[in-house]
Automatic annotation (TrEMBL):
Catalytic activity: Cd(2+)(in) + ATP + H2O = Cd(2+)(out) + ADP + phosphate + H(+)
Keyword rRNA-binding included in the entry's annotation: no
Membrane topology, from the record: Multi-pass membrane protein
Main location: membrane
P-type ATPase A domain boundaries: 118-220
Protein name (record): Cd(2+)-exporting ATPase
EC number(s) given by UniProt: 7.2.2.21
InterPro entries associated with the record: ATPase_P-typ_cyto_dom_N, ATPase_P-typ_P_site, ATPase_P-typ_TM_dom_sf, ATPase_P-typ_transduc_dom_A_sf, ATPase_P-type_domA, Cation_Transport_ATPase_IB, HAD-like_sf, HAD_sf
Species: Lapidilactobacillus mulanensis
Similarity section: Belongs to the cation transport ATPase (P-type) (TC 3.A.3) family. Type IB subfamily.
Cellular localisation: Cell membrane; Membrane
PANTHER family in UniProt: CADMIUM/ZINC-TRANSPORTING ATPASE HMA2-RELATED, CADMIUM_ZINC-TRANSPORTING ATPASE HMA4-RELATED
Length: 633
């Protein structure tokens, strides 16, 4: 066992030692004209190089698998029997060198995981009962502990801020490089960096339960989950390797040419075929992980590429999920005065429409705090009446205006109908019996959605569907603005699931895109569940794809990436099969020999690896679009 571990640990050194011995052998032959030293150097190189290969073959045989290494080991033994030390030395070196490059390349595709794990903090500064600070191992932090995080340090737990203020770089969780202000009661995530300020954080999740730990585990598991192509290749290899052995035996029986039979063994090794699919999936999943897109494995990637129908939840997915003033109709020259009075009267109410108007006044930098309310009345189902700075102010619906004998002009009636036609709730404001403004309040459509849904269609999506619990008028308006093909409104969660099943029964491949919480049944039912969210437990566990940034550009990138990854896998499989066919035909035709064939064989492995590496930078030029615009709430 110790010998095996030693060999595995020093395989790279063995590879370079073999190269040096081969070089020494050829120098002896052509500079010193010594055939004896040439044979000795190449024989030693063959023996040294075949050891790690034979160990792998033995380990595979114990698991009842006839591996590629077994074919190479048999081929080297055969080359020794016939005295072809140059063939055995070159074959073993190329095989080891190919494995060396393969591991180097695969490690590059896993850099996103390495960078994530390196960001995980190992210690935390815990605030003690007496106010002192003690640095403890991260595994010793418990839920409810308060930890201190200083400028430049990694946040060690999921929790809420109980003291302090600062800016956190949340790229490790959301993929978004923009720094986010963190203050009292704000949520923070383990693994994110505090770039400025200081925070005291009460831990709500620690260790393996943190969002960051789950993300790392998810991506690691995803890169080990096999696609349909990989599963096929695994089954294929189980029969292919014994078949090559049988063919080599048949070749020897009929030709009595031992060297030819050994060459068949070497050239029949399906190295590029075995590595082609896994390296494509690892590169594709790594590409997504670096951009805050978590794809749960090769099989998910394979299914995602076949999606033709995207079903969307509305609130919080296609829209921002919070009501705000989306339109204003103005009927006097002093709109800011009207807005100030409207905001002041709405301070008397806790209604969402009122809060939206107050927020809008704040965004417009309109000062209303110093206005004085001398009398007020709340009329249930209609609105509010109040005297503000000696002016009689009304804010409510058309019923309130009619009850207070405030007449609406034809223009105002038309504006009211227009706003209601967009699905907006309306607040009519009247000052001293004259209507001065109408505010349309709605859940605002995300500004980037229309363009990205068009990009999604251009990328291969055939049907865009919206399922929502909202009213039909609002749903129709949103669908019209976004180019949604089909809309169904006023649905409960279980009714959304029935629609997903209906689409699947029609033969469609369905992806459901939701917020990962109330839509979890639909996410689980669809062929692919896509959670638009900040990495909640439900989103990570229920969905197949998690878009940490809630960005539609990320959704389009993920869809394109899945198609590109599947295409890349097919390219690699095609290359691998074509190379094996070429080598065997070349062997029969007499222009391919063991050394040259092994060179082509190892070169094909590098070709499929480098082809897969193109996925690492796929879509890099559009990275700026993956960061969503800042939403002020």
């Amino acid at each position: 066992m110790k010998f095996q571990l030693y060999i595995q640990k020093h395989t790279t050194q063995i590879t370079w030692t073999t190269a040096a011995l081969i070089a020494a052998g050829f120098l002896s032959k052509y500079l010193l004209n010594s055939t004896m030293f040439y044979q000795i150097f190449l024989a030693i190189a063959s023996i040294i190089a075949v050891i790690p290969i034979a160990i792998h073959a033995y380990q595979a045989a114990r698991a009842k698998v006839i591996s590629i290494e077994f074919l190479v080991t048999v081929a080297v033994i055969g080359a020794f029997i016939i005295g072809e030390y140059n063939e055995s030395a070159i074959v073993t070196f190329l095989f080891l060198f190919g494995n060396f490059l393969e591991q180097k390349t695969l490690s590059k595709t896993r850099e996103s995981i390495k960078s994530l794990t390196e960001m995980a903090p190992t210690t935390a500064e815990v605030v003690q009962a007496d106010g002192s600070i003690e640095e403890v191992d991260i595994d010793d932090v418990d839920e409810g502990d308060v930890v201190l995080v200083k400028t430049g340090a990694a946040i060690p737990v999921d929790g809420v801020v109980v003291e302090g203020n600062g800016y956190a770089d949340e790229a490790a969780v959301t993929g978004e490089s923009r720094e986010v202000n963190k203050a009292l009661d704000d949520e923070v995530f383990s693994g994110t960096m505090l770039s400025d300020g200081f925070l005291k954080i009460k831990a709500t999740k620690v260790g393996d339960d943190t969002t960051f730990a789950k993300i790392v585990e998810l991506v690691e598991d995803a890169q080990d989950t096999k696609s349909h192509a990989e599963k096929f290749i695994d089954r294929f290899s189980q029969y292919y390797t014994p078949a090559v052995l049988l063919i080599a035996l048949i070749v020897f029986i009929f030709s009595r040419d031992f060297k030819l039979a050994i060459t068949v063994l070497v050239l029949g090794c399906p190295g590029a075929l075995v590595i082609g699919a896994p390296v494509s999936n690892v590169a594709g999943i790594g590409n997504g992980a670096k951009r805050g897109i978590l794809i749960k494995g090769g099989e998910v990637m394979d299914t995602f590429a076949k999606i033709d129908t995207f079903v969307f939840d509305k609130t919080g997915t296609l829209t921002k999920g919070s009501t705000s003033v989306s339109a204003t109709k103005r009927y006097n020259d002093s709109f800011n005065d009207t807005l100030a009075l409207a905001a002041k009267i709405e301070t008397l109410s806790d209604h969402p429409l009122g809060r939206a108007i107050i927020q809008y006044a704040g965004d417009q930098n309109v000062d209303y705090q110093d206005l004085e309310i001398s009398d007020n009345e709340t009329i249930k189902g209609q609105g509010i009446a109040a005297k503000i700075n000696c002016q009689q102010v009304l804010a409510g619906n058309s019923k309130l205006m009619a009850a207070r004998n405030v007449a609406m002009t034809d223009k105002q009636q038309a504006d009211l109908i227009e706003l209601q036609g967009t699905g907006s709730s309306v607040v009519i404001v009247a000052i001293d019996s004259q209507i001065t403004a109408i505010f349309g309040v709605s859940d605002v459509i995300r500004p980037e959605v229309a363009e990205e849904l068009a990009n999604l269609k251009a990328s291969g999506a055939k049907h865009l569907v919206m399922l929502t619990g909202d009213n039909q008028v609002t749903a129709n308006y949103v669908a019209q603005q976004l180019g949604i093909d089909e809309v169904h409104a006023e649905l409960l969660p279980d009714q959304k699931v029935e629609f997903v099943k209906k689409f699947q029964a029609e033969g469609r491949k369905v992806a459901f895109v939701g917020d990962g919480i109330n839509d979890s049944p639909s996410l689980a039912t669809a062929d692919i569940g896509i959670a638009m969210g900040s990495g909640t437990d439900v989103a990570i566990e229920t969905s197949d794809v998690v878009l940490m940034q809630s960005s539609f550009a990320a959704l389009v990138h993920a869809y394109k990436l899945s198609k590109k990854t599947v295409l890349n896998t097919r390219e690699n499989v095609t290359i691998a099969i074509a190379v094996v066919a070429f080598l065997l035909l070349g062997l029969v035709a007499g222009f391919i020999y063991m050394a040259s064939g092994m060179f082509v064989h190892e070169a094909s492995i590098l070709v499929v690896i480098f082809n897969a590496m193109r996925l690492i930078n796929f879509g890099k030029k559009n990275d700026a679009k993956l960061v969503p615009a800042v939403v002020h709430s």
